Protein 1
Amino acid sequence: MNEIYALQIDSNIKSLFDYMSHRATEEELQRMYRAYELAAEAHSQQRRKSGEPYIIHPIAVATIVAMELELGDNPIISAFLHDVVEDTPYTVEDIRERFGDDVAFLVNVVTKKKKSTASTSSSQIDNYKQMLNSLHYDIRALLIKLSDRLHNMRTLNSMRPDKQMKIAGETDYFYAPLAHRLGLYYIKREMENLSFRYRCPREYAFLESELEKEMK
């Protein structure tokens, strides 16, 4: 691994666990660290579109869940593991054996289900239905998914322009209103601003330059 990335990962993990050391028990900290280690091992051969190690993304999502949403150990563990079942050979049962039923439930909800060949609906619509159905049982799954989308929006510049438009449109149409309905107004506002940046880059650049002039 590139030394710069290794230092970034170590710094981000240290910041997260230093923060949680004031909120979690020693047992909870150990469980969270085991989840990080599992995620790091599972994603060890994967890279993001930017070229950075994939584990940077789960760490960032777990950090949003911990520091910005102030959730507890099981949602943080689930945030570390949110892409493990979808993108690696590990299964929900593997997660259950290591971290229990609650974490397995949360990971299962945020894992995109493979689309059946007989299905007539789009995989994205199925994913929305899956998330909204989870609201009947546990809002934490939605908060993890919002954290996942928020970090993806914060790092959207590494994607192709067509993917940027697609993801920004989904965010503006579905995720920002969902954040609003949950009372997460600062997340809603950031998602809308980032979506506008990629959907309307010229208008965004103009407004940004005008704001900079006002600040001088």
Protein 2
Amino acid sequence: YAVDDPGALRKHQIDPVKLADRLAKLSYQQMFQFGFFHADPHPGNMTALKGDVIALYDYGMMSKLTPAFREKIASMIMGLNEKDNRLVARSLLGMSDETVVANTEKLEGDVEMFTEENVNGPLKDLRIGVILNRLLEVLMKHKLRMKAEFYLGIKALSQVEAIGVMLSPDLNFIKIGKPYATEMLGKKWGVHDLLHNASAALEVTVDTLKTMPYDFHELYQKIRSGKYSIPIVHKIDPISYESLHQTLNHITNRIAHAMVLSSLLILSGLLFVSKVP
């Protein structure tokens, strides 16, 4: 049955409120537990079955999340729940391509101002889709380019939340996500994961210590022989670049005008010599 018709669902003994709750939990379960989610969950791509069961289909648009990326999403969800501006800002940085900004304190200040304007109401009235879409404006202001998974995640969560609120107006989508986020972050500090990470770090450290003397020796030989070069990449400020762009355009135009005038002078000289009336 169509999931966007609460009246019809009730006629078929399907509880819209329970269906909304299950749909929200299904979305978080896909992202946090499986790391593989349906990226286009609109009403046409799902149906309701008897027993308050949600069925998804049309898997043409899917997305995969790495464990590290899932942890950042979980931190963001926790930050929104606890209204922790710093945690939200750090989580967003971790989900961007740059992972750093010129002024971290300014970003945290803008996120704090954003949360005061958009996240200070009762938690049950907050809409994660609206919040994340408005938050993109803050990210653009700081020239943060987010990873593709972030945009697909916003899209999927916004679509699911819109359906959920239609089925159950009191649906607290952010609160439903908190246990999944807590579990995800809890695994990060679990004994098994800590031992695994420590083992991996120890292995890398041992390999580094083995190769370090040879690497230093090779570096010393290159410097001594004058064969060592340091690549330098210069990043031009957009404002300075615009000024440089205008200057180069001006120079190019002058050269073009000079070439045209020279050509006319040469041609008129040829016409004069050939005695053409």
